[in-house]
Amino acid sequence: MQKDVAIIGLGCAAYTAAIYTARYKLDTLIVGEEEGGMGVTAAEVGNWPGEVEINGPDLMDKFKNHALSYDLVEHKIARVESVIKNDEGFTLTYQNGETSTAKTVLFATGSNKRHLGVTGEEEFAGKGVTYCATCDAFFYRGKTVAVLGGGDSAVEGAAIAAQVAEKVYLIHRRNEFRAEPFWVDKVNEKDNIEFVLNTNVLEIVGEQTVTGIKLDKPFNEEEVLPVNGVFIEIGSLPATALPKEMGCDLDEKGHIKVDSGMQSSIPGIFGAGDVTNGSNRFAQFTTAAGEGAVAANSIFGYLQSGDGHSGAMG
Ligand code: NAP
After folding, report:
1. Which one of 72, 128, 224, 305 has the fewest beta carbons within 10 angstroms of its own beta carbon?
2. Is 0.85 topped by the overall pTM?
3. What spacing in Å lies between the alpha carbon of 234 and ligand 1's midpoint?
4. Is the pLDDT higher at 307 or at 166?
5. pLDDT-derived band of residue 310, with 50, 70 and 90 as boundaries?
6. Which residue ranges form the domains of the chain, and what is each CATH number?
């Protein structure tokens, strides 16, 4: 049976939207390949209002349980291979060839971690190179690791890694972090974190697994810093393969361009969360949830009147 809305994604924006669409009495499909989105990679969330501190996986479980408490929400784990516009709406085709149809589609597909593009990165992926310090630090108990980047992910990641690793190098290409001062204070408090600033990584070296990283200038007189693990935390790229294929307008950084109602350039296609250019591209739980709510409201308006720009509030 055709759904009112197919929400693609299983993260914060997607589940928030599903809570709202269910309460608008819309027949909702929520589908994605992996549960939780970027939210599950947050070790400590301290800026979700109402929770002084909660970990990302627990918060995402709450989102999911809340959304799935509504009978109108159907949950599906599958990879969506294509979305095609037809006369009645849209057809989603999954990897196994099965299909679903919906009158509207909400892309809440989030983002994927940016790669550094240096020699050794691919060769040692999963053998010392990973893209989530908070998820993988646990495997480096008592070892030496490097965290690359200067944003929230890197600085939070370094603070979490320092709880288990013996030594953490936080390597950043500039001499200033862009992370929240809360996390910068945390890394400053740790005496097993050493900052390597104004420095770029040229190569990741190793044998069976990573043994070191080659820097563009010596640090403590070493050109190859000996490390057992490298966490690359240099930002993310929006996951826009499907909307791009459909012809949705993207901004210069590759995010889906949305209007204030979260509608894309194609009527009936909406976006929410890290995949859009909304909220000043400030990727947070709070902004993703807000965008999910606005998108659901606009979808309700669109289904009632064919106008996705003004939302249900007129
Ligand atoms: P980000 O804010 O885009 O920061 C990426 C960092 O990597 C920057 O410091 C950047 O350097 C550096 N970088 C980028 N490309 C590089 C390259 N090729 N080589 C070396 N360094 C490079 O990414 P993020 O830290 O993953 O955060 C993404 C979003 O998620 C943000 O909105 C953030 O607020 C949010 N987030 C929030 C939390 C939290 O609230 N606790 C946790 C994680 C993520 P420059 O500074 O020189 O540009």
Report:
1. 305
2. yes
3. 5
4. 166
5. low
6. 3-113+236-305 (3.50.50.60), 129-232 (3.50.50.60)
